[in-house]
Description:
5-stranded antiparallel sheet; alpha+beta; two-stranded antiparallel ribbon; 2 domains; elongated
Amino acid sequence: MLSVGDFGVGSVLQNKPTDASSSFISDADGNTLWAPANGCGFQSSYTGQRIAQLWITSGSAVFSRFLTTTDPQTPKSSVPWAQLQSAGTSDINFKEVTGELDLKESLSNIEAMDFKTFYYLTDEEKTIRRGVVAQELEKIDPQYVHSAKESGKMTLDLNPLVLDALAAIKALAIRVRTLEGETKAAAPASSAG
């Protein structure tokens, strides 16, 4: 039979984890060093050095991380949290359309991006990958990234990135269509002889 407080059940306010025990966890500190932000969640483990944590902030953002230390409050700067990205809502019933997107601005943003090859510092095999640097994309458009403030690492927000890529494709398609029209208009008439 469970009692109030077992595994954090029934606890109010803060229930910061102190060991690897499976439990409900929380932190009310908005400047917490270990949790992504104030909120709550749970953790589970199968040894003292294998702790899975799931966290939900007061703004409904969801984060997770897996620790291979014995400290469930390992700083997020040492072991960052991964933010789960929810699907973007495109339903007209949930938005107020305020105008048309400037396709040229989207194309300019894509043109300003520098694409890199890299490997992750934690990848022992040093597998070469391709991508971008989040800090560079933030300078182009802050909507392209999720801040490192909560998770401990900066991540990409794919919704505005994909939409700007689609807008840039449309801008280029319009440009190609215009150029094709100009080429046809300038071509001399063919004469059969």
